Amino acid sequence: MALAFRKVKRKLSVGKDAGKEMYFAMAKKTSMTPFEDVCELVSHNSSMSSADVKSILDSFNWVVSRELKAGRSLHLGELGHFRLTLCAKAQETAEEVTADKVTKARVVFFPGAILRDTCSKMTFVPYDEVIREVEKIVEVPVPCEQEHVA
User: Fold this and answer.
1) 92 to 97, 105, 126, 143: CA distances (angstroms)
2) Phi, psi (degrees; rounded to nearest 5) at 27
3) N-term to C-term CA, the chain
4) pLDDT computed for residue 103 by the predictor
5) Is pLDDT larger for residue 147 or for residue 60?
6) Choosing a second label site near 147 at 20 to 30 A (CA), which of 10, 86, 87, 139?
7) For position 137, what pLDDT does the model report?
């Protein structure tokens, strides 16, 4: 399956072409799978019910939050691992680097081998081509004239 992208015009902020406007490919999601559907899909591929999967994922979310708050990274086997990173204002000396210079924390996910392999095997297609293909599949019914019987 191909990943759709859209063409976006952006101004370069660094490098020899800084300030120049260029076009880039940006990933375009074609739809979203709701949480309930994810639970249902996992349940079809296991011996758990959809409610069991939801319960486990709710609990998993709590565990990830707890462990990250404690400063630990979470390694989840083939899935990958989570860790926290910080965003902070740069300072000229080490003494100036204090807690109030930290602007926010971010959760970073590093995918495992299977997900990395998925990304390496992706193909890409412009989003407008995806729309044209969908329009071919979903035929719009043509209204037909009805005969009036008197």
Assistant:
1) 9, 21, 45, 71
2) -55, 140
3) 54
4) 96
5) 60
6) 139
7) 67
pTM (two decimals)? 0.67
Write out the DSSP string of the chain: -EEEEEEEEEE--SSTTTT-EEEEEEE-------HHHHHHHHHHTSSS-HHHHHHHHHHHHHHHHHHHHTT--EE-TTSEEEEEEEEE---SSGGG--GGGEEEEEEEEEE-HHHHHHHHT-EEEEHHHHHHHHHHHSPPPPP-PPPPP-
Report the amino acid identity of residue 68: L
Six token digits for residue 93: 């000396």
Amino acid at 127: Y
